[in-house]
Amino acid sequence: MGIPSERIERLFALAREAVVDDEYERAREYVALARRVAERNRCGVPPAFSRRTCDDCDVYLRPGKTSRVRLQSSRVVVRCRECGSTARYPFD
Q1: Domain boundaries defined on the chain
Q2: Residue pLDDT, tens place only, 29-39
Q3: Which residues pair with residue 60 across a beta bridge?
């Protein structure tokens, strides 16, 4: 684990705290900064974090506050309440 991945983890933790405090713009800034750090250092955002953020508007997704989560037959459907984008993830 290098310095960029540690910074990415810290920025996502700060984004989570900002969403809890209802500071959505600050959370967006943290997520955008984490993605820029990942691009610059060519390490990528870990899948655990990328599924917790909206790809279109960079908001940190928290079920009930900023996202709506539904289960279908073989997948999880996550809908962002800020921009309306939908992401579908398979599960067993």
Answers
A1: 3-90
A2: 999 999 999 99
A3: 53
